[in-house]
Design brief:
It is built from one helix and eight strands; from the N terminus they run H-E-E-E-E-E-E-E-E. It is of the alpha+beta class.
Length: 99
């Protein structure tokens, strides 16, 4: 019985981890501008990942967010860049994540 309650708790935690990203989806009708060219400086430490800059919607217009390096959370992890995705309701931002 204890094993089943632990599984249910884990399932609930996973469900809540994804809920904010689904519930907080913001759709923009204006196509995002092309990414700006960024000069990528050398990494501050070996193994750090580059998060490319992107256009963020601030509620009225797109604002450029510059890229930067990030420390990986674990060995051999790699960064999957965020991106704008077009759907029937408009454009929505998919956050980048570690894989």
């Amino acid at each position: 019985m204890k094993h089943i309650s632990t599984m249910l708790l884990a399932a609930a935690m996973v469900g809540t981890a994804f809920a904010p990203s689904l519930a907080g989806a913001q759709y923009v009708r204006v196509r995002p501008p092309r990414p700006m060219y960024e000069r990528r400086p050398p990494a501050p430490r070996p193994g750090w990942a580059w998060r490319a800059g992107y256009q963020r919607w601030d509620g009225a217009r797109y604002v450029w967010v510059p890229g930067g390096y990030m420390a990986p959370p674990r060995p051999r992890a790699y960064w999957v860049q965020g991106r704008w995705v077009h759907g029937p309701r408009g454009w929505s931002w998919r956050e980048g994540y570690w894989r």
